[in-house]
Amino acid sequence: AQKITQTQPGMFVQEKEAVTLDCTYDTSDPSYGLFWYKQPSSGEMIFLIYQGSYDQQNATEGRYSLNFQKARKSANLVISASQLGDSAMYFCAMREGGYSTLTFGKGTMLLVSP
Amino acid sequence: EAGVAQSPRYKIIEKRQSVAFWCNPISGHATLYWYQQILGQGPKLLIQFQNNGVVDDSQLPKDRFSAERLKGVDSTLKIQPAKLEDSAVYLCASSPRTPPQETQYFGPGTRLLVL
User: Fold this and answer.
1) How far apart (Å, rounded) are the C-alpha atoms in residues B10 and B2?
2) Beta strand B44-50 with B31-37: parallel, antiparallel or unpaired?
């Protein structure tokens, strides 16, 4: 089974609107971390936000927030007030237990239109 | 603070040739990773170093790929001989030892095209 599933190959949103990018994960380890990265066309992976499995509150970083639903094993990224510069690939990733290795999903391409 | 540096940014070679990539991690980061990202997929870990020791190389095709991290700082990844399916972006990342988050910071990557 896939450890990280991103079901949306592509998403379109208008500037200034909010958008949710879906991510579900699969692990039996009670200790894990979930990450979201942005990859613009330049290729660099840019860290956006982190959620630990024991964190009580959903993570927020500026316009990014993580909708963490542990029972559903989902960690959706919410981008508020989309900007043209948000157009990029977005990857969800997981680290399990004491290992620092990340497992990535296949990504979602987000296109923001004026 | 300078980010992760990688070179070259682009490389085109013919199959069966050899190629090497270089990575300089963020200063002070003990852990260094090499990922392979094939078009349309997420990055896949090739090898992980902790200082200059290998932590995980289970997904490294050792018959053709090799990597080293001398003095626990810079690292090189080599492919010899290259195959068509090695065409991909090779990403280097580093992380500090600050559990539990240990965020990985990535370089710009090297785009390899094997003809």
Assistant:
1) 21
2) antiparallel
Q: Which residues of A touch B (CB under 8 A)?
A: 4, 31, 33, 35, 37, 42-47, 50, 52, 91, 93, 95, 99-102, 104-107
Residue pLDDT, tens place only, B9-42: 999 999 999 999 999 999 989 899 999 999 989 9
DSSP-assigned letters across all residues of A32-78: EEEEEEEE-TT---EEEEEEETT-SS--EETTEEEEEETTTTEEEEE
3-state secondary structure of B11: strand
> Cβ separation of A45 and B56 shorter than 8 Å?
no
> What does each C-alpha distance from A55 to A21, A67, A68, A93, B101 come to in angstroms?
20, 12, 9, 17, 11
pLDDT under 50 in chain B at which residues? none
**DSSP reduced 3-state for B84:** helix
pLDDT attached to residue A101 = 85
pLDDT in tens, A5-40: 999 999 999 999 999 999 999 999 999 999 999 999
CB contact under 8 Å between A46 and B106, yes or no, is yes
What are the distances in angstroms from CA A68 to CA A13, A65, B29, B99? 22, 9, 29, 20
| Average pLDDT rounded to a whole number, residues A41-56 | 92
Distance, in Å, from the CA atom of B4 to the CA atom of A42, rounded to the nearest integer, reads: 14
Question: Residue B23 is which amino acid?
Answer: C
Identify the residue whose tokens are 């900007």.
Answer: A83
